[in-house]
Amino acid sequence: MSARKKTIACFGATGGCVGAALALALKEGHYCTALARTPEKLHNFLATYHDIPPSTINERLTVFEGDVKDPAAVSKALISPLDQGALVDVILSGVGAYPTFQWSIRQPFPLIDPTICETAIRTIFKALSDLYSAATTDGKSLTKPLLVPISTAGCGRRRGIHLSIYLPYHYLLGSPLADKRRMEDVVFKDHGEHIRDFVVMRPPFLTDGEARGDSSLRVGWEWGVEKSGQTVKEPGPEIGYFVSRKDIGAWIFEKVIVEGGWEGKCVYVTY
């Protein structure tokens, strides 16, 4: 008997790591939802960049138009496309923004929206809270989903960046790093209130190259929240320079969504 197909909500799916994971999920028969400001852009991205047939997209993906800062719009994407009385099994969040250049010694590459990652997670939690409250009023209980946010290698307790670029990395990308750290802090402080658990992804610099596959990847991890009684010792980060967005998306789908066992960990995947 084949394994049960998962339901997956995707935020920030019009490119990058979440888009790659979404494409693989659709190809493998899983049912997904996504929130997009321009749904046509997401459909075109999946069809042209990932070669997903339009029939597969229409059958297995439900796209809601809206902004990730709107709890009402986010709520729609969190409901299982197979059961309107349940939540999705997994939430993928790759929401972010590219930094822009400005003539500044303190902050040369700020974000247009300096809190976008943190705000996205807070909005997802607000939407979940509203859904739990509505379910309780109706006498129902909802199973909490797993959250997989895309962070970056510079956010861990241990050094996740090569010493050769450590200082310029933190100086030039100070604004995006600060946003990712705040986002992680929101996730770590949830303590099961909104989600059953998390897997935080901390890749180094992301590229648009083709996926190289598992044999080319090095994987390390550390606990997101240190607790007394943890019996498995964290190996720490694997330090590298680059990794493809497609490889990160494939790793999330294959290792986190399908196989499981990474809950509570912050994962470093690099070449």
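^ that was protein a. below is b, sequence first then the tokens
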Amino acid sequence: MCKVAAIQMKPASGQTDANLQQAVFMAEQAVGEGAELLVFPELWKTGYHLKKEEFLRLAETRDGKTVSLFRDLARKWGTVIVVPFAEIDGDHLYISLAVIERTGELLATYRKSFVWGKEKDSFTNGERQYRVIHTSLGKIGVLICYDIEFPEPARLLALQGAELIIVPSVWSFGAETRWDIQLPARALDNTVFILGVNTVGEGSCGKSKLVAPDGQVLCEASREEACILLHDIQPELIGKARARIPYLADFDESLLPGGEARKSGMVILG
């Protein structure tokens, strides 16, 4: 499929210029090492531990400076980029991401559908609709942090043909055990690749990781240091895993709501 780069950053709260400089520097390094897909963590530009008024000041629209810059960089570098951002839309704030093709085309945006804990003081849940995104590197799904703790979104993406599910996150030390369990579990449940991209600092546990379709952790980043995690994705591992572990072939689709609608990603959860 491609060589992926998880950009595990150490954001400084509210320091958007410094965080952007760090992101571009690390991304350029990854591109120099052959990365074809770049993924940044959740809320990397703003930091995580801010009050609502601070997020309101720093949030952008989906055609704002951050997404526009990374569209230009995707075109310059010839890479696919998944870049989260704090999004403002009218009176609402969302934790969002943009998926950008190597041509600079904005393929899709996604809003975190399950807002966690104190995030509810600032952010609104996005729609619980999950659609596969067709990129030049293959079919990907995107979820954000807490979304991966529910089995249904990942399953819906897998049933639509996702080969890789990308999960930008700010995952805490207190929830580290869940990070170590749930990413491999979702990969194995659905026999797909899972790429979790976390931050360090601000109480985050790092350990960005790429998990194979059989649940094996292929590579894992530092628990405390900013770094670039690079690894090749081999799509043939999906077929091999599904030949041994026929979860999707044996799954009873009548257990899902929406009937045929789920094939187009139109199932709405909750």
